[in-house]
Amino acid sequence: IKVGSDQHEKQLCHFHRIINIAKPFFTIILVTIICLYIHKHGVDDCQKTIALADYKAYNGKWEEVLEAVDDYPYYDFYLNMSFNRAHLNLGTLNQKAFHYPQLLGVEALLPDRTLAGQIAIPASDFYYDLGYIAASLVYAGEIQTLLPYSPRVLKRLFMIHLIKGQYQAAETYLNTLSQNFLSRKFAAHYQPYLTDTTLIINDQEIMHKRSIMPKGQLVEGSPDGKLQGLIRTNPKNEKARDYLMIYHLLNHNLAAFVKLLVKEVEMGATSIPRAWEEGLLVFVAAGGQVDPALKSIQVNPETIDEFKRFSTIIIDNSDNRERAK
């Protein structure tokens, strides 16, 4: 009887091993079938474009994100956020922020201005990009309550704890990722960092994030407060600076925008990006008093000519907004 029982247990163990090996492949096949069905029957063009832009962003292909956004002819809130994030990571937000209709203003610029569960993933990604690791952790934790085994979420949580130097917590997430067929390559890449933490010194992304992240555990309450906190931590955080400048422009706070602009000039700037030139011209046209420090700024003549044309159109069509468009 004992021999028969042992054989039965061996058969069960063998069966479970086969199931564990085959499970990832079945998962891939099932997900593929579902995706193909949804693609054909259940998703409109806007949702397809949003998914494509998100996939490209997840893989860091920022130029392709912009291509996806440009291919969709209508305005969309999520595509607006994707556009802003792509230019943020390309370092061109201060040049091209207004090449997309920022119809919702700061609501699409700062994801957590909208208090909804759908923005948890873009908010976590956004603050990770900026270097506000504590804020990224808050939103990643919120996502995990809904998707506890999502590789995307687990990777984000692993990177956050690795950056913060919380190696034991990082190891917990990496161990979980190593058990997922789709994440084993990622886990194998980062496992040496936990075996020998001195290797992290050679990782530019991690070291850069450590140099710009606010060190406290508390997170600023307001989105613009988070940006200001990043700049206080590291005045050379160009991503946070550019975002705060555009934030003030979209929030119609020209005085705060010009105040930051003066600081840039005091730090040695003699020319400014296109979006900032446009903001300065609006400030002057509105009767703002120009700080003497800004008189050294050379505004591009093309920007001035385009602003004059814009002003003429607005004045000539002040009674008909649609005609002005």
Give a short summary of the structure.
By secondary structure, the protein is mainly alpha-helical.
How is this structure best described in words?
With 325 residues, the chain is mainly alpha-helical. 70% of the residues lie in helices and 0% in strands. It has helices spanning 2-42, 45-58, 62-71, 77-90, 93-96, 106-109, 120-130, 133-146, 151-163, 167-178, 184-195, 204-212, 223-233, 238-250, 254-266, 274-285, 301-316, 321-324. α2 packs parallel to α4 (77-90), α13 packs antiparallel against α14 and α14 packs antiparallel against α15 (254-266). The termini are far apart. The mean pLDDT is 87.
pLDDT averaged over residues: 87
Structural class: mainly alpha
Percent helix range: 55-70%
SS strand fraction = under 5%
Radius of gyration: 25 Å
Low-confidence stretches: none
Largest sheet: none
Order of secondary-structure elements:
HHHHHHHHHHHHHHHHHH
Task: Please count the helical segments.
Answer: 18
Quickly list its features.
18 helices; mainly alpha; 325 residues
Helix-strand blueprint:
Elements: H1 2-42, H2 45-58, H3 62-71, H4 77-90, H5 93-96, H6 106-109, H7 120-130, H8 133-146, H9 151-163, H10 167-178, H11 184-195, H12 204-212, H13 223-233, H14 238-250, H15 254-266, H16 274-285, H17 301-316, H18 321-324
Helix pairs in contact: 2-3, 2-4, 3-4, 7-8, 8-9, 9-10, 10-11, 13-14, 14-15, 15-16
